[in-house]
């Protein structure tokens, strides 16, 4: 019997800080990503997906469900080798092939190489999930240096642009691109000025790219998560803030990655969303968006 009323962890979380970029393997409270109540039904049979930031967090959860739905998966990650190897084992346990690609999405040449390698490995590319992100809190505008601003912009929006451009030659009609936005891109965040700006840009990029690729039959959508329990946050905020992470949502808790991943299946699967392009789907844990 499926669990109809899952009891997800509520704050306080462990007051833990991780060194950037943060290893999921080092988190005291492990994110829930396996979605044991989710039954695959072949929605992505024969497809191949490329996921940036796929080693942990939302990216790992999406990789697992894509594999459960029949897709082979290539994962781009920065340098978190242990997390990436763990994710590969989970994908392979679902019966699908998994390619690990270590590199930086700020580098356009790497993005082109990664897309080519994934296409060569699987013989096709059908889905791009742009998910890699850099985030760092700042109490004051003056605390955001030019170097920090550039890193946030080049990871979060340049990286999405580089990857979309790199995979476009391989995508055919029925393919899709899914971008990870954020509730901060919808509502703003006083302590995440640069991060929020990139997420707002991602939402606009999603809608614009959807229009640009419409005639080619390629759909482009975004998911805008609220707070999600992933390594991104304890690698950013101080431990005392992490203890109450997500408590200000209407549900009084952060999401677990497995609560986001079905949205990415929905937007990728032609059988579910063939008439949907250019939307930003909020999954925020609060009423409204």
What is the name of the CATH topology?
Answer: Rossmann fold
Low-confidence stretches: none
Q: Work out the helicity level.
A: 25-40%
CATH architecture, please?
Answer: 3-Layer(aba) Sandwich
Order of H and E elements: EHEHEHEHEHHEHHHE
Biggest pleated-sheet summary:
7 strands, parallel
The CATH superfamily bears the name: NAD(P)-binding Rossmann-like Domain
Oligomer: single chain
Overall spatial form: globular
Distance between the termini: 32 Å
Cα gyration radius (Å)? 18 Å
Category from helices, strands and their pairing = alpha/beta
* Number of discrete helical segments: 9
- How many separate structural domains? 1
Mean pLDDT: 94
Task: Please indicate the percent range of residues in DSSP E strands (runs of 2 or more).
Answer: 5-15%
CATH class: Alpha Beta
Number of strands: 7
The strand order across the widest sheet is: 3-2-1-4-5-6-7
Provide an overview of this structure.
Helices cover 36% and strands 12% of the residues. The chain is of the alpha/beta class and 289 residues long. It has a single domain (41-283), classed as 3-Layer(aba) Sandwich (Rossmann fold), CATH 3.40.50. The protein has a 7-stranded parallel sheet with strand order 3-2-1-4-5-6-7, sandwiched between helices. The longest helix has 22 residues, at 146-167. It is globular and about 45 Å long. The two termini are 32 Å apart. 48% of the residues are buried. The model has no long low-confidence stretch (mean pLDDT 94).
